[in-house]
């Protein structure tokens, strides 16, 4: 009987073999495969949703947190949005084969660079079955094979989605083996996968802080980590109040269970008396619980319709993934910058201000993957940035940062054209 580890090695070897063919596949074949995947998602929607319901029922029975249940949920609207994202990726330029930085040396050599796929991408992820699709289509378009290992809580959803991808892609001309799903929940397979640097060229974990830390600490291959978002929005002294309320509301409420949602609101002391009751009223309609520092409490407590609670030290630097926000009043832009430096995760940070110099200081001095002036942090997303979809959001600095799209799944090689030159 073949063991799970032997099956994993077999899938890995098939992915490696497919990656060599996929690296040279035409853009026409890859794009046709993506369009077929998008159409197949819609035509197989009912069986996908049925598989997802099995996962949701089991997760709900096991007591999964509401934020994680929301990430696990698929719906007709979400499947339709995923299909549209796939078509958007298909419409993007092929990132493979671009020649750039070409120049002539004094000896007559033509030297430049050419973009190439990374090879085989491995990914370990939790809860979100849409990741199965997002990573698969981005890898295929960028000429990479992929090995997927989702969480046991989404196993039926992932199996249904992976089968749709494989059937449509292989029928369109993608090499067999290019998309592999590990369908066993055994933890030992994760441990083994992290040692497969003879096959996997890059590992991308997507999930909570514990998963990402585990993968980064144990992988034998390079890891592109990120995803944990402790996101701040700072309302500056010169902020337009209506604009500030709209941005803070959207950043917290539009989808609170994701990594780019607002966690901490910082408000300048000079406008706190005006701004905090406005945002508290709007957040209150959506059920947002405000964990306030002493000065914010002093402003909001007298308002009978509001029920703010005192913030604890654990609220600063916490990713809530729920309708909860920490609120702090600050004396200056410098204090806001210092707070973000101490408690931010390097994901997404925003300032609301009408002061150009303050906006520029914020953009220049905040060390994060995505830094906003007068816009919601909810835009940190591959689709919203015009990338079609994303493999994840990197909060590190090598080799890529922010939403990871097609370009971030390529490397380059040097190409040198000569006419008989030899080195003297």
Notable characteristics:
Aldehyde Dehydrogenase, Chain A, domain 2, 424 residues, alpha/beta, seven-stranded parallel β-sheet, Aldehyde Dehydrogenase, Chain A, domain 1, 14 helices, four-stranded parallel β-sheet
**What top-tier CATH class of the largest domain fits best?**
Alpha Beta
Distance between the termini: 60 Å
Strands side by side in the biggest sheet? 10-9-11-8-7-12-13
- The CATH level-2 architecture of the largest domain is identified as 3-Layer(aba) Sandwich
CATH topology of the largest domain: Aldehyde Dehydrogenase, Chain A, domain 1
| Total number of strands | 16
Low-confidence stretches: none
**Taking all residues together, what is the mean pLDDT?**
95
Order of H and E elements? HHHHHEEEHEHEHEHEHEHEHEEHEHEEEE
Q: Provide the helix percentage.
A: 40-55%
Silhouette: globular
In CATH, the homologous superfamily of the largest domain goes by the name Aldehyde Dehydrogenase, Chain A, domain 1
Strand content: 15-25%
Radius of gyration: 24 Å
Number of domains: 2
Quickly count the helices: 14
List the topology elements.
Blueprint: H1 4-22, H2 27-43, H3 45-61, H4 66-72, H5 76-91, E1 99-104, E2 110-117, E3 120-125, H6 130-141, E4 145-149, H7 155-172, E5 179-181, H8 187-193, E6 202-206, H9 209-218, E7 231-235, H10 241-253, E8 262-268, H11 269-286, E9 289-292, H12 294-300, E10 309-310, E11 324-330, H13 333-343, E12 348-352, H14 356-365, E13 370-373, E14 393-394, E15 402-403, E16 410-417
Parallel strand pairs: 3-4, 3-6, 4-5, 7-8, 7-12, 8-11, 9-10, 9-11, 12-13
Antiparallel strand pairs: 1-2, 2-16, 14-15
């Amino acid at each position: 009987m073949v063991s799970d580890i032997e099956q994993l090695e077999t899938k890995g070897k098939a992915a490696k073999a497919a990656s060599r063919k996929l690296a040279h596949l035409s853009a026409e074949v890859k794009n046709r495969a993506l369009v077929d995947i998008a159409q197949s998602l819609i035509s197989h929607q009912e069986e996908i949703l049925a598989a997802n319901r099995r996962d949701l029922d089991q997760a709900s029975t096991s007591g999964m947190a509401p934020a994680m249940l929301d990430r696990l949920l698929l719906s007709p609207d979400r499947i339709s949005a995923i299909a549209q994202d796939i078509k958007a990726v298909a419409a993007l330029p092929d990132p493979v084969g671009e020649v750039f930085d070409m120049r002539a040396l004094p000896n007559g050599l033509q030297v430049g660079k050419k973009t190439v796929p990374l090879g085989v991408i491995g990914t370990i992820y939790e809860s979100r079955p849409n990741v199965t699709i997002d990573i698969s289509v981005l890898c295929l378009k960028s000429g990479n094979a992929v090995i997927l290992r989702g969480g046991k809580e989404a196993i039926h959803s992932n199996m249904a989605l992976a089968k749709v991808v494989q059937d449509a892609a292989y029928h369109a001309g993608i090499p067999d083996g290019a998309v592999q799903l590990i369908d066993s929940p055994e933890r030992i397979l994760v441990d083994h996968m992290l040692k497969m640097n003879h096959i996997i060229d890059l590992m991308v974990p997507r999930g909570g802080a514990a998963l990402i830390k585990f993968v980064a600490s144990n992988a034998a291959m390079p890891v592109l980590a990120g995803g944990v978002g402790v996101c701040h929005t700072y309302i500056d002294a010169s902020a337009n109040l209506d604009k500030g309320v709209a941005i803070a509301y959207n950043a917290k409420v539009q989808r609170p269970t994701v990594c780019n949602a607002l966690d901490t609101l910082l408000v300048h002391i000079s406008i706190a008396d005006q701004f905090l009751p406005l945002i508290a009223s709007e957040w209150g309609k959506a059920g947002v619980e405000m964990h306030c520092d002493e000065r914010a409490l002093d402003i909001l407590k007298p308002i009978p319709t509001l029920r703010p609670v005192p913030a604890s030290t654990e609220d600063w630097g916490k990713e809530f993934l729920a309708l909860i926000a920490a609120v702090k009043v600050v004396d200056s832009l410098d204090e806001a910058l210092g707070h973000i430096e101490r408690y931010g995760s390097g994901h997404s940070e925003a300032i609301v201000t009408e002061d150009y110099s303050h906006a520029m200081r914020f953009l220049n001095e905040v060390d994060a993957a995505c830094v906003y002036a007068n816009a919601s942090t909810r835009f940190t997303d591959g689709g919203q940035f015009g990338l079609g979809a994303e493999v994840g959001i990197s909060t590190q600095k090598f080799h890529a940062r922010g939403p990871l799209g097609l370009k971030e799944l390529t490397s380059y090689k040097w190409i040198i054209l000569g006419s008989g030159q030899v080195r003297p």
